[in-house]
Request: fold
Amino acid sequence: MVSRLFVLELSDGRIFSVNPDGSDRRVLITGCRMPDGIAIDAEAGHLYWTNMGVPSRNDGSIERADLDGRNRRTIVPEGATFTPKQLLLDRHRGKLYWSDREGMRVMRANLDGSHIETLVQTGSTEADRLDQTNWCVGIAVDPDHGYIYWTQKGPDNGAKGCIYRADIEIPPDDTAYERSDIELVYEGLPEPIDLEIDHDKRILYWTDRGDPPLGNTVNRAPLDRDPHGRPPPEIVFNHLMEGIGIALDREGQRMFMTDLAGSVYVAQLDGSKPSVILFAQGNLTGIAYAEVPTPTVIHRRT
Reply:
């Protein structure tokens, strides 16, 4: 097994892979339509990604390919999701979860794209769609405790960004539009984007693409309330240039981040030992870390 990072390049619509130190860059997929979220199923040998498409056209989609870029296919067709953003794979349940920005919803489907469901719906009209506080962007799943987490970023630097959580399954007698189990985790954030969970330590991480000092950061906070409530988020990394993607290497106790300025960063989970492993790579969005079988990184796609 070898460690690899898989990175989405929005500007040129492609997916590339590198070693965790930034070396051995290999282009795997080209011709993506504004890719944003990526998830790796190393056991099955698949990578999944979301295509935002053109936000005004309701033409988002989700694709899948082998880890070497071969056997590419669309599993969630254009229009079945509006503007899909961060993507999360729950292999235990055999599900893909994603946030749909202009669709104003949290969604999931089987790993083959079948049985598409809406779990949370924050708006339904065109007027609702213009309200960026309804936009769902990041997604994370806590399968052991039965929760989904998502971000609603709000307007640019509006300090109206929120993180919510709810049960993985919609409660009986509730609907995606009206759920009785939604809990506000944090509010008043500059512009929260992507989420990740350190399941062993029960810590939630997220990128924030708003302006400094609170934005352009990586934040973390406990997943669970204590008797005194939730502490303020802790900023563990700053100086991102419109931060988007985050991926945790839990075993190695490190995190990787991307920003729209085209850099890939690495640091320890507490923010120490920061460094830039790639820069000037175009506009970068999603990133994933995975341990993959060695043969899957042999083939180069251009």
